[in-house]
Design brief:
The chain is an alpha/beta fold and 263 residues long. Helices cover 23% and strands 30% of the residues. The strands form 4 sheets. The chain has a 7-stranded mixed β-sheet with strand order 9-8-7-10-11-15-12, sandwiched between helices. A 4-stranded antiparallel β-sheet has the order 2-1-6-5, with no helix packed on it. Strands 3-4 form a two-stranded antiparallel sheet. The structure holds S-adenosylmethionine.
């Protein structure tokens, strides 16, 4: 066997007597399965038996002799394999949030709403400690399971509740960054000057221009600096024998990202 040990030492990953190891990806071409160590997976190429001590980089054969590669879950895999509730942010937009706010190890982030939890999990994987609020109790439960799957249960505190009701319970000037992905984001932007450290950022993601205008207006009204809104559009390129051009598939817009700074 070779590769990195994929054992998850987070407390939430399991209890004594149960498997405390996170699922791994078994990959062959377009085929991809998420399977727990010690588990079994039926495929059209035969049955895969995953050893309990499986490691990233291993190769496992089906009982018919076809090989699958073992991989640990990385950030983009979480987007595809987390159980979905609230519409998750796509990885490229999360990259913009991290790039524009500088979220890094040691930062404290206030996130709302949790939804599927893809943003919260990727921020934690970048090293941040995340407090995230989800008003839907069932969504919050799913998000906690997703955090365990992502190996970040210790770094992400999923709290059930409407974040706008919890503002008074939050310590002033205790967050380096606020990330908001809710329709009522303006109500939280109002509190950004109180909740953020000096020089901290608020990042608001919204699919619609109407709420985005409201966010930008509120950010200026409460005295935040460097208020900037950009559409998070990208075009995939297509390369074939006839030439190269952006794909004609009509997917480009995912949202608007407003960034502002507490000064
Ligand atoms: C678009 S999803 C967030 C997706 C998340 N950013 C991700 O990457 O997976 C929005 C979520 O916010 C929750 N929500 C909306 N308003 C909220 C509030 N005021 N407090 C807490 N959660 C809220 C909704 O229930 C929904 O699950």
């Amino acid at each position: 066997m070779s590769g990195d040990d994929i054992e998850d030492d987070s407390e939430d990953a399991g209890t004594e007597g149960e498997s405390n190891r996170v699922p791994v990806l078994l990959v062959r071409g377009d085929r991809e399965y998420l399977v727990e160590p010690g588990g079994e997976q039926g495929t059209d190429l035969g049955v895969l038996e995953v050893p309990t001590d499986v490691q990233s980089g291993d190769t496992i054969e089906t009982h018919l002799g076809d090989e699958f590669q073992v991989r640990r879950l990385r950030g983009p895999d979480l987007f595809h394999h987390f159980e979905r509730t609230g519409a998750p942010m796509v990885p490229r937009d999360i990259g913009l949030v991290i790039g524009e706010t500088g979220i890094a190890g040691g930062d404290r982030v206030l996130d709302a709403g949790t939804g599927t939890g893809v943003l919260a999990a990727l921020l934690a994987r970048a090293g941040a400690e995340v407090v995230t609020y989800e008003q839907d109790a069932e969504f919050a439960d799913v998000a906690r399971e997703n955090m365990a799957l992502g190996g970040v249960a210790d770094a992400v505190d999923v709290r059930t509740g409407d974040v706008t009701d919890e503002v008074d319970a939050l310590e002033p000037s205790s967050f380096d960054v606020m990330t908001l992905d809710t329709a009522d984001a303006p109500a939280m932007v109002e509190h950004a000057p109180d909740l953020l450290v000096d020089g901290g950022f608020v990042a608001v993601y919204s699919p619609f221009i109407e709420s985005t205008r409201e966010v930008a207006r509120t950010a200026r009204e409460v005295g935040l600096a460097n208020v900037t809104t950009r559409e998070t559009i990208q075009r995939e390129m297509q390369f074939d024998d006839r030439g190269s051009r952006p794909t004609t598939a009509p997917v480009g817009h995912t949202g608007y990202l407003t960034i502002a700074r507490n000064e």
